[in-house]
């Protein structure tokens, strides 16, 4: 969904401050001859301490093509970090696989050594910090990226560490596309297994609705092919159950023909117009064409800059239908700015990219809303409490369309009835104390949460209890437990919206 792009847009006012940009771990050379400590203390998923000896680590290195990074190694700090620097965690070791065999070997090592606490990092966009860990093993998939498009079959095969911008780029080169998120450096693995919202979701469905098959390394270290015809239980669970069942090493997507040029951009109004904008969306969204994607955000930057209320537009239909689709927005009157224009779809997908992702810290709350009632609109506006020391944002992206035409039990993702995913976030310069911003976000969310019904697992909140997570899967929970019992009976993959096994 649009959360990273909205946060990025809001944080533009902070960008004038000086922050150090760090290179990606995948760009850093590795030297296998670096010194290994005699032994490394690590923890298991259930909190026990284990010792990984020099001999054990040497054996692991010998069975991998990709590197193993320890705290003393160059590249370790960049590999362990995720985009939200609020989670400054230190794994005992980091494995950077280059292929499926490396992934299987790393999973075997984690399982056979007491069930090490295991984090899996693809793009590092986890706002809850689940793609890194303290004193466990992090499997960093940044060296496992590849996209292959079959233009005749209209399919794409994507390796598990790939970023969605790679798929957009390769598929659009053949005039093809499938639903992906809204920030090009988001990892395909994390995005898709949670559901996969994006600018084309109302037209083509969620990313999981376009999955044809997956390959998964489960907790047994074995590769399992899953599709509608092979291991259908795993295929069902992966589509919305997040990383609960293993590491997806390959995704096969259905692609759709689409023109390269779309109409995209933001229509910006004064924040005083927010109530009118929200009322228009509430009335128009249920009947809006599926080719129209709408996002809303209300933001107050730091300092004295005025707040704004804006509509983010992507029209992927025929040009002749554009003005009719935008007529309700035009009826709101003259905006402060209208940035909608013909734009290359791949360029639009990059427009929310974060150039220095670790310069700002953020705290986020989210939940699905079944509608946009007048009471919710009042709460969003009346309880909005900006502060000049932070960026304060409330935003959402619409559901509906093709997303809602799938039965709630057809995939593990059950919130097919959602009007939108509502989020609020605070953003502040990294290094400043964020306690007051976090508390302000919690207070604001306490006024909005009563209007929500469940949450998007990709926005998992570390404050959520196990009971809340279980209830979020709704009628699909018991079936998810059965899949978990088969593929991860000891809960090796627990850093997620966790489905607890009962075996």
SSE blueprint and pairings:
Layout: H1 3-10, E1 39-43, E2 49-53, H2 54-62, E3 68-69, H3 76-80, E4 93-95, H4 100-112, E5 118-121, E6 137-140, E7 147-150, E8 155-159, H5 164-172, E9 176-177, H6 188-194, H7 201-204, E10 211-217, E11 223-227, H8 232-238, E12 247-254, E13 256-257, E14 261-270, H9 274-284, E15 292-300, E16 308-315, H10 322-330, E17 337-338, E18 341-344, H11 345-350, E19 360-369, H12 374-382, E20 391-398, E21 420-429, H13 435-448, H14 466-472, H15 477-487
Parallel strand pairs: 4-6, 5-6
Antiparallel strand pairs: 1-2, 3-4, 7-8, 8-12, 9-13, 10-11, 10-12, 14-16, 14-17, 14-18, 15-16, 15-20, 19-21, 20-21
Helix pairs in contact: 9-12
List segments where confidence is low: pLDDT < 50 over at least 5 consecutive residues.
1-34
Class by helix and strand content? alpha+beta
Tell me the CATH topology of the largest domain.
Vanillyl-alcohol Oxidase, Chain A, domain 3
CATH architecture of the largest domain: 3-Layer(aba) Sandwich
The outline comes out as globular
Strand content: 15-25%
Percentage of residues in helical conformation: 25-40%
Main beta sheet: 8 strands, antiparallel
Q: Compute the number of helices.
A: 15
CATH top level class name of the largest domain:
Alpha Beta
- Cα-to-Cα separation, first versus last residue: 35 Å
Beta strand count? 21
Global Rg: 22 Å
Counted up, domains total 3
Mean pLDDT: 92
């Amino acid at each position: 969904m649009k959360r990273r792009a909205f946060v990025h847009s809001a944080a533009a006012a902070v960008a004038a401050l000086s922050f150090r940009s760090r290179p990606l771990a995948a760009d850093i050379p590795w030297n296998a001859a670096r010194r290994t400590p005699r032994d490394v203390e690590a923890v298991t998923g259930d909190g026990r301490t284990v010792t990984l000896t020099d001999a054990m680590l040497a054996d692991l290195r010998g069975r991998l093509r990709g590197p193993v990074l320890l705290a003393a190694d160059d590249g370790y700090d960049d590999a362990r970090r995720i985009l939200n620097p609020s989670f400054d965690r230190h794994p005992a070791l980091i494995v950077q696989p280059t292929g499926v065999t490396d992934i299987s070997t790393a999973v075997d090592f984690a399982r056979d050594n007491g069930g090490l606490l295991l984090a899996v990092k693809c793009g590092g966009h986890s706002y809850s910090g689940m793609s890194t860990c303290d004193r466990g093993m992090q499997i960093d998939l940044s060296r496992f990226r590849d996209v292959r498009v079959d233009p005749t079959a209209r399919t794409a095969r994507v390796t598990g560490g790939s970023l969605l911008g790679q798929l957009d780029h390769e598929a659009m080169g053949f005039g093809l596309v499938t639903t992906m998120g809204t920030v090009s450096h988001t990892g395909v693995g994390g995005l898709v297994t949670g559901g996969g919202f994006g600018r084309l979701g109302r037209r083509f469905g969620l990313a999981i609705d376009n999955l044809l098959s997956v390959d998964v390394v489960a907790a047994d270290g074995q590769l399992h092919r899953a599709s509608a015809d092979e291991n259908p239980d795993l295929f069902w669970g992966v589509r919305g159950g997040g990383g609960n069942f293993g590491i997806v090493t390959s995704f096969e997507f259905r692609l759709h023909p689409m023109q390269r040029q779309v109409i995209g951009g933001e229509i910006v109004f004064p924040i005083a117009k927010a109530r009118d904008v929200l009322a228009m969306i509430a009335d128009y969204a249920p009947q809006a064409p599926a080719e129209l994607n709408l996002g809303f955000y209300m933001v107050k930057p730091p300092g004295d800059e005025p707040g704004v209320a804006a509509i983010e537009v992507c029209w992927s239909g025929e040009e002749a239908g554009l003005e009719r689709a935008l007529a309700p927005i035009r009826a709101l009157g003259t905006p402060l700015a209208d940035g909608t224009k013909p734009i290359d779809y791949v360029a639009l997908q990059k427009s929310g990219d974060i150039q220095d992702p670790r310069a700002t810290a953020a705290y986020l709350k989210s939940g699905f809303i079944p509608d946009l009632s007048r009471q919710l609109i009042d709460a969003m506006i009346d309880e909005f409490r900006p502060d000049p020391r932070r960026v304060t944002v409330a935003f959402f992206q619409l559901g509906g369309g093709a997303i809602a035409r799938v039965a709630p039990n057809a995939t593990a993702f059950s919130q097919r009835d959602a009007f939108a995913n509502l989020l609020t976030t605070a953003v502040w310069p990294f290094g400043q104390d964020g306690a007051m911003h976090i508390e302000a976000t919690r207070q604001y969310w306490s006024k909005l949460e009563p209007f929500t019904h469940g949450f998007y697992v990709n926005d998992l909140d570390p404050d959520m209890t196990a009971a809340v997570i279980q209830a979020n899967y709704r009628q699909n929970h018991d079936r998810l437990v059965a899949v978990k019992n088969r593929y991860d009976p000891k809960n090796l993959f627990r850093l997620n919206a966790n489905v607890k096994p009962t075996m």
